[in-house]
Amino acid sequence: MPCKSDYLKATERETASRQFCQHLCYIFESLEKTIPEWIRKGADEYYGSSDRVNEATVLLCATIRAMTPDEKERIVYNGRSAKARAVADFWDRHEAADRARGD
């Protein structure tokens, strides 16, 4: 029987990584873009892809910023979709943090 660490609780960074990868999967699928394997794996793994959390964050922000207003409305601000609401919540918090930093 192989050794595993899945009894350990995920750290905040690992949880964030998984959530960002899940958001990216949802957005890429909605935009009909190919999902890189590391993102798909990070979305499925309990511990995410914490070694690439910064990369996932940058890619997520860049992808949302590059969306047209219609795409944002359909994909991010679709109130009937739980995935969209999760992305919208992330995006609202992220933009507020950017404003607080003066970015």
Q: H/E element string?
A: HHHHH
Low-confidence stretches: none
Oligomeric form: single chain
Summarize the biggest pleated sheet.
none
Question: Percent of residues in helical segments?
Answer: 55-70%
User: In percent, how much strand structure appears in the residues?
Assistant: under 5%
Report the end-to-end length measured between terminal Cα atoms: 50 Å
* Number of strand segments: 0
Shape: globular
- Rg estimate, integer Å: 15 Å
Mind explaining what this structure looks like?
The chain has 103 residues and is mainly α. The protein has one domain. It has helices at residues 12-30, 37-44, 53-66, 69-76, 82-101. It is globular. The mean pLDDT is 91.
Topology:
Layout: H1 12-30, H2 37-44, H3 53-66, H4 69-76, H5 82-101
Give a quick set of tags describing it.
103 residues; mainly alpha; 5 helices; globular
In short:
By secondary structure, the chain is an all-alpha fold. The protein has one domain.
